[in-house]
């Protein structure tokens, strides 16, 4: 009994924090089911009557789905690229002794310290020179490049933990280094690959700054960009913007529900190694 | 592990043939193989991470509107202009305030909640899931949502204030307090991330240590102060690092919530850089801001590694020890 009462203050504090987190979500969710007039009279209560028009309007627009697909395509392409290139490099760093290894690895590790925002203007100039503005590659390639350091560091640690005997056995069986990498190491590294992939997907999905400067063409916009532009367009129609915001949250939150474990393990690995 | 030198056979190693030349051949082809594996990543990294820093350094020495090649060399004039600019000094001050707020409010809050959720209380899995959810949202979506919540008339925040009989507040248009509104949103979005890191750290602390301390007569606070906190040190130091680096490059939330206003009161370096570079096409000056951001991050990161993280590298987190 005493133990039960001791935790009461904890429950109160955690509860207050939970309300602080939940209220904006609830406001958005219910707000989307109201008209804007209803919303300003009754901001937090249940909608009455429930208006589904805002949500159906958003879902019926081609713009939303196009942005969703753009975000998806860019996230998948970024992830495949960064994970594949990082795995190759991490393999060399983990299992070869070669001259310049420490130097090259340090070079990548220093990359962890570069805030993305620092590079955005010169990146824009470079992408313009290469003709990659208004081109998905203009977002995919830099995102992959900036994802390399963390991905390489996490994968290298994992690759090192695989015993040498495995490689010796594979080599005796006639595996080339690439064969070992492709047919033995990568399948063994599946959990680590899942972790770094999840991190790369989330980083790409949420990126706003780079698409903002690279994409002028609305057909290429990703969701974060689309939400911001939608707000500009429907400035007066708060309820409709809320519906757009909520619908845009769904993929990220669904992904969180599915990949929570990889995400958390990746973030904590990143945090202790970064 | 003595490492890959101990690799037994060359690629495709068929035993018995050319035994004499093998040693030399293995070294040579091993180096080439390794480089071939690193090369694609290295090319991408050099081209799109390292080169931009050099480009920024070069253009920051020019007066350039972005059309044609930069030809008007002006030495360090952009940097003297930067240091004499009230806006830039304001950016530094705003960044400093946000860093201090994060360190004295947000991180202790995250730590406190992590300690609470580390106990066996009902629904803790749900709380953990919930507190982390905002971190999953993009800054853009968070920014749009909060710009509606904090909007002056119809916004939720002011509706609540007036329904409790309080005066409505200009959340995003009051120069003296706009940073606090911004910080409120930052906390909403990020405290769950720090909490999750702390929770992982807490779970790495053996339960026996707490029990031993309790048997020795230490109360809850003393156990936290003399057992939990020291053992959590490495985790806290990393979370401080991430928080500061994140604040230095803060852009998305500010841009969407306030655009840096009113009258630059919430402007950050990244917002100034965007404003000058992309809105006013003063590319040279904007590059100088990029370079300044880079130098500030670099000095902070190196100093932090040298003076704060060093202890951790020598001991606690052994995974780092071998590559620094």
UniProtKB/TrEMBL annotation, chain A:
Identification of the protein by name: Carbohydrate ABC transporter permease
Provenance organism: Streptosporangium amethystogenes subsp. fukuiense
Membrane spanning stretches: 12-30, 72-96, 103-127, 139-159, 192-215, 241-259
Keyword Repeat: no
Domain of life of the organism encoding this protein: Bacteria
Alphabetized PROSITE patterns for the sequence: ABC_TM1
Residues in the signal sequence: none
The UniProt record lists the keyword Transmembrane helix: yes
Domain ABC transmembrane type-1 intervals: 68-259
Stored Pfam families: BPD_transp_1
């Amino acid at each position: 009994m005493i133990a039960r009462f001791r935790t009461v203050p904890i429950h109160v504090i955690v509860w207050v924090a939970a309300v602080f987190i939940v209220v904006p979500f609830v406001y958005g969710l219910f707000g989307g089911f109201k008209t804007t007039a209803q919303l300003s009279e009754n901001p937090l209560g249940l909608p009455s009557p429930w208006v589904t028009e805002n949500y159906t309007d958003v879902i019926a627009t081609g713009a939303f789905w196009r942005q969703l697909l753009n975000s998806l395509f860019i996230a998948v392409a970024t992830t495949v690229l960064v994970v594949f290139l990082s795995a190759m490099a991490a393999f060399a760093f983990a299992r070869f002794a070669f001259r310049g290894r420490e130097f090259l690895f340090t070079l990548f590790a220093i990359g962890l310290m570069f805030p993305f925002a620092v590079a955005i203007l010169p990146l824009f100039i470079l992408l313009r020179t290469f003709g990659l503005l208004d081109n998905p590659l203009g977002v995919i390639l830099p995102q992959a490049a900036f994802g390399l350091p963390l991905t390489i560091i996490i994968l290298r640690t994992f690759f090192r933990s695989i015993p040498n005997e495995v490689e010796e056995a594979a080599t005796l069986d006639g595996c080339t280094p690439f064969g070992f990498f492709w047919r033995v190491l990568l399948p063994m590294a599946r959990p680590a690959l899942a972790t770094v992939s999840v991190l790369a997907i989330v980083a790409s999905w949420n990126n706003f700054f780079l698409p903002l400067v690279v994409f002028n063409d609305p057909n290429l916009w990703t969701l974060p960009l689309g939400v911001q532009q939608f707000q500009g367009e429907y400035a007066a129609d708060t309820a409709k913007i809320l519906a757009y915001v909520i619908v845009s949250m769904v993929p990220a939150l669904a992904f969180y529900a599915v990949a929570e474990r990889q995400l958390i393990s990746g973030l904590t690995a990143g945090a202790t190694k970064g | 592990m003595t490492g890959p030198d101990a690799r037994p056979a060359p690629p495709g190693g068929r035993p018995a043939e050319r035994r004499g030349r093998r040693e030399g051949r293995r070294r040579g082809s091993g180096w080439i193989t390794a480089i071939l594996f690193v090369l694609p990543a290295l090319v991408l990294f050099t081209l799109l991470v390292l080169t931009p820093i050099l480009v920024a350094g070069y253009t920051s020495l020019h007066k350039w509107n972005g059309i044609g090649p930069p030809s008007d060399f002006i030495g360090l004039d952009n940097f003297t202009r930067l240091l004499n600019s009230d806006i830039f000094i304001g950016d530094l001050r705003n960044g400093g305030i946000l860093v201090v707020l994060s360190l004295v409010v947000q991180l202790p809050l995250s730590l406190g909640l992590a300690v609470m959720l580390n106990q066996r209380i009902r629904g803790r899995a749900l709380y953990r899931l919930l507190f982390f959810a905002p971190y999953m949202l993009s800054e853009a979506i968070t920014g749009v949502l909060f710009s509606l919540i904090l909007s002056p008339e119809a916004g939720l925040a002011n509706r609540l204030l007036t329904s409790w009989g309080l005066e409505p507040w200009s959340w995003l248009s009051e120069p003296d307090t706009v940073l606090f509104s911004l910080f409120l949103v930052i906390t909403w979005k990020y405290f769950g991330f720090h909490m999750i890191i702390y929770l992982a750290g807490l779970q790495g602390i053996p339960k026996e240590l707490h029990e031993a301390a309790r048997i020795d007569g230490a109360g809850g606070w003393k156990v936290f102060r003399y057992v939990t906190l020291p053992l959590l040190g490495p985790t806290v130091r990393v979370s401080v690092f991430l928080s500061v680096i994140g604040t230095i490059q803060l852009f998305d939330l500010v841009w969407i919530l306030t655009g840096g206003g009113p009258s630059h009161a919430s402007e950050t370096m990244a917002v100034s850089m965007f404003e000058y570079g992309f809105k006013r096409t003063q590319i040279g000056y904007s590059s100088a801001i990029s370079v300044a951001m880079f130098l500030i991050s670099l000095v902070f990161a190196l100093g932090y590694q040298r003076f704060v993280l060093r202890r951790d590298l020598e001991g606690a987190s052994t995974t780092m020890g071998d590559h620094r």
